[in-house]
Amino acid sequence: MENLLKPTKSVGQPTSCWMVPALAVKLLLPVFPHYAPKDIDATFQRMVDGWAKAQRLFDGVDELVGALRNTHESCKLGILTNGPSAFQWAVMNELGLPALFDFCHASGDADFGIRKPSQEALELIERRYGVAPQRCLFTGDSWKNDIEPAQKRGWQAVQVSPSTSFRAQTMQLILR
Fold first, then answer.
1. Same domain, 26 and 107
2. How far apart are CA 114 and CA 116, in angstroms?
């Protein structure tokens, strides 16, 4: 495989994203109208942390990432996930994903701000990381949000399911 991209530093939580206090107030104030702002922030943070701790990777994801790094050293590996940055970054950080991937983006990031299945999200990835669509592979669990838009954009795509082994579904397809 030709050297398309060189790895860059892992990306941590963006410093600017739409989360506390606006999202916390929007979500929690109707439920807890008597809470002070500091209490809303603390409650929201406990919610985010609890959500992140409850998440698990599909079986085999860490092995697949390691195998891709060993067999396709020059490939850039990234994450594009929909959702509020506070929640998505808490999950990614809890699972240690920024250390495994070259880039991570949540649709709620101030510097990204585009939700899948938008073609603009994939175009932004192509421009930002200098890749041609025909040299990209997208794995995802949603046909509508992941696979269909990737294929329409000219990317290769593999659908995975949390109900079966990620490793069994994808290792042979991706590493061939």
1. no
2. 7
